[in-house]
Amino acid sequence: MTKEKKNKNSYEAKNAWTEMKEDERAEVFAFNKNYADFLTENKTEREFAGAAIAKLEAAGFKNIKEYKSLEKGDKVYIENRSRALMAAVIGEKDLKEGLKIVGSHIDSPRLDLKPNPLYEDGEMAMFKTHYYGGVKKYQWVTMPLALHGLVVKDDGSQIEIKIGEKADDPVFFISDVLPHLGKKQMKKSMTEGISGEQLNVVVGSIPVADSEAKDKIKAALLNHLKAEYDFQEEDFISADLQVVPAFKTRDAGFDRGLLAGYGHDDRVCSYTALEAILDLNDPLYTSVVLLMDREEVGSMGSTGMQSHFFEDQVANLVDLYYSDYSELIVRKVMQNSKVLSADVSAAYDPDFAEVYAKHNSAYLGKGIVISKYTGSRGKAGASEASAEFMGEIRGLFNQAGVVWQTAELGKIDEGGGGTIAQFLANYNMDVLDCGPAVLSMHSPYEVVSKADVYHSYLAYNVFLEK
């Protein structure tokens, strides 16, 4: 039987694993080991931003406040309320020729504690939560949960909280009705089976010995919080406390080619972008990495992409770079800039094949995904990259040996999603969505291909470098 020849003029996405040599595979696994450890340790945007700053400073980046002027080779970062971050390396070309930007977000779907969360019922102490981002609520019940965040007291002092991650830490959980009594629940839709108001976290069960005390278990828990962490019930009101899965990021599959963990969307892009700018040599253009907050809820707020933070910091760069600052220069810098909106795509899942456009889907192991547009249905809520910019990026990746594929987010009428691309495109920049594929996106335990993670790093690095 003769082997069928492939048409040289046809297009088919490559599998990244078959493209790499044995020594390259070892590098892929080592890179992903570091990423897995980072993801396990940093499950909130505050933690990610803090750890990112530590890495930047170790690599010679300085807070922009330390500079009186900027020139080629300078490395700066700007922090925004401990929840967002911008890092830049000043390039060889004049700033007016534009920036090379990789923009991502560091927030992920989760459960936030309500401002007044603690109550007692059914011989248990509970926390009331408010889910953040697009979650399937039923996925968050009956699994180990951890509590992360910050408590700010009325005197301004701060208390960092991280409970549920160490082997000897207690964990928390949300209960579900047993199947023996779940007849009515099982008749409901998956959306209605668990409501938002049922996402209550069990946090205690031992009462105080005082027979006169009201809500004895709640009272005991408040005594514990005061003794162990020095905060009281009113302090919950000025706290950023998040309930996240207590899982570690771990290898998945017999061959260990996949990585399962909480928060791949979008910390897989944020981490690879961070590593890409850390490893820059002498970039041609000034290179920028944006690690933004609140994308999962529309990018609103002071730390989201719709705030003036980015625009203000470009103005800050211009002011330190030129002696004759003007708003016109700021606009010229932005309109000449080029952006990779680093966000994930949906990996094809054969168990749910009916929602995917098979010939325009992303597949695990086939490299970073470039998406001409995102949005939903009639391309609503997204920017669209020009053919010229698509061709430029495709050529850049091909020349550098970056394995890539192209995809849409599911079938046209099934839904869709957006990224921060549209907000950067508003500045008249060339913008393209570009990130790895994720299986079980927005679940408490998402899955990515290690090969795709590594090629995302390569893609962002070569884009920032050239």
Describe this structure in words.
With 466 residues, the chain is α/β, with parallel strands linked by helices. It has two domains: 16-108 and 262-465, Zn peptidases (Aminopeptidase), CATH 3.40.630.10; 110-245, Aminopeptidase i, Domain 2 (Roll). It contains twelve helices and 23 strands. It has helices at residues 16-19, 22-41, 45-58, 183-186, 190-193, 216-229, 264-278, 309-321, 327-335, 387-400, 421-425, 450-465; strands at residues 62-63, 75-80, 84-89, 99-105, 110-121, 124-132, 145-152, 158-163, 173-174, 201-204, 239-245, 250-252, 258-261, 286-292, 338-341, 345-346, 368-371, 375-376, 404-406, 416-417, 430-435, 437-438, 446-449. It has a nine-stranded mixed sheet with strand order 1-2-3-14-4-15-21-17-19, with helices on both faces. A seven-stranded antiparallel sheet has the order 8-7-11-5-6-10-9, with helices on one face. It is globular, with a radius of gyration of 24 Å. The mean pLDDT is 96. It comes from Halanaerobium praevalens (strain ATCC 33744 / DSM 2228 / GSL). Belongs to the peptidase M18 family. This is M18 family aminopeptidase. Its EC number is 3.4.11.-.
What's this entry about, in short?
28% of the residues lie in helices and 24% in strands. By secondary structure, it is an alpha/beta fold.
Strand order, sheet with most strands: 1-2-3-14-4-15-21-17-19
CATH class of the largest domain: Alpha Beta
Strand content: 15-25%
Overall body shape: globular
Low-confidence stretches: none
Task: Tell me the radius of gyration.
Answer: 24 Å
Domain count: the total is: 2
Helicity level, as a percent range?
25-40%
Largest sheet: 9 strands, mixed
Number of strands: 23
Overall residue-averaged pLDDT value: 96
Structure class: alpha/beta
Q: Give the N-to-C terminal Cα separation.
A: 47 Å
Q: Would you identify the CATH architecture of the largest domain?
A: 3-Layer(aba) Sandwich
Family: Belongs to the peptidase M18 family.
Organism: Halanaerobium praevalens (strain ATCC 33744 / DSM 2228 / GSL)
Cofactor: Zn(2+)
Protein name: M18 family aminopeptidase
